[in-house]
Amino acid sequence: MAQPTEYIVIKALENGVNVIGLTRGSDTRFHHSEKLDRNEVMIAQFTEHTSAVKVRGKAVIQTSHGEMNTGE
Ligand code: TRP
């Protein structure tokens, strides 16, 4: 996979938001879970290891596709 260039931004709107990275390839499983408290921000990329990201809890997510709020 080419070097990723884009980032996604996740801002937690409540305590205990989980940002979960899922593995790339035939075996899709959680490989990392990051807990964010209110107003914490995570900036992340899709990488050789990460093909999907799951966000649990109230957050604002910005990507090149736009901005969305979870939990509304
Ligand atoms: N080691 C992981 C990777 O290189 C780190 C990571 C990148 C990650 N993007 C993520 C973890 C998104 C959770 C969510 O793929």
Automatic annotation (TrEMBL):
Keywords: RNA-binding, Transcription, Transcription regulation. InterPro entries: MtrB, Trp_RNA-bd_attenuator-like_dom, Trp_RNA-bd_attenuator_dom. GO terms for molecular function: RNA binding. The keyword Iron-sulfur does not apply. GO terms for biological process: DNA-templated transcription termination; regulation of DNA-templated transcription. Residues 5-70 form the Tryptophan RNA-binding attenuator protein domain. Pfam families: TrpBP. NCBIfam families: PRK13251.1 (NF009724). Belongs to the MtrB family. Oligomer of 11 identical subunits arranged in doughnut-like structure. This is Transcription attenuation protein MtrB.
